[in-house]
Amino acid sequence: MHIGGLQKLSLIDYPGKLAAVIFTRGCNFRCPYCHNPELVIPQRYAQPLSVEDALDYLRDRRFMLDAVVVSGGEPTIHHDLPELLLRIRELPYLIKLDTNGSNPVMLERIIQQRYVDYIAMDVKTGLADYEALCRTRFCVGSIRRSVDLIKNSGIAHEFRTTVVKSLYTETDMSEISQLIDGCRRYRLQTARLDNAILDPALSAAEDFSPAEFAALRDRWEINTANPEVTQP
Ligand code: SF4
User: Fold this and answer.
1) What is the span of the domain harbouring residue 28?
2) Which of 17, 96, 109, 133 might form a disulfide with 66, Cβ 3.0–4.6 angstroms?
3) For residue 232, what pLDDT is reported?
C-alpha cells in the first residue's frame, strides 16, 4: 500500500476525537466532484509516504491524539489494509474507516475482526445511476451489500452523500433513503467546486445556496446515534 498523505491533526474527521488522517493512494471510482485527484489519478500522484514513516508519526503522537482516520482514495482496494489497521490498533488508537463501499468482501473481514471503531460510507446516488456518476464499471450490488453489512455490524457508523445541484435528483435521494433505511446517522455534504476537482468542467456549474442546502439537510439527514458509542 502507498500512503498519499498524512493530515497530522483533524478536529472534524472522527466525531468527538482528536485524530490524524491517513490518505491511501488510488481509487476505483472517478467521481467528478472529487477534490483529491492527486489520490485518484496515477499521473497526478505525489511522492508517497511510507507506511513506516506514518506509523512512526502516530507512535510519537500517541499521547496527543485519540484516533486515526484511514481515508482515501479508497482504502479497501488495498489487500494489505487489514495489516495497516492492525498495526495502528496496536499503538493503540481508535480507528475510523472512510469507504466508498465498493468492496464488501474487505469490509466484511474488517468488521468481523473488529479492526475499526467507526465506519463512514459514501452513498453516491441511487443504484441505477451509480456507474454513470462514478464513471466506472463495477458490481453495483456491492453497494447494497456494504450498506447492509455496515448497518448490521454493531460498529458505530454513518452514511453520507455529497450533493451537487447540477447532479441532484429527487429520485436518487429517495432511493438512497430507502437503501439506508434504519441507519442512525446520515449526513449530506456539499462539494468544493473549484478547479482542483477531478472534472473541472463541473466547477462552473451552479451549486446549492446555503439556504437550499440547509433545507436539504432538514429534509434528508438522520441523526439518532451517539457517534462516540459503539452500537450493538
Ligand atoms: S470522491 Fe472518493 S470515491 Fe470518488 S473518486 Fe474521489 S476518492 Fe474516489
Assistant:
1) 3-223
2) 17
3) 33
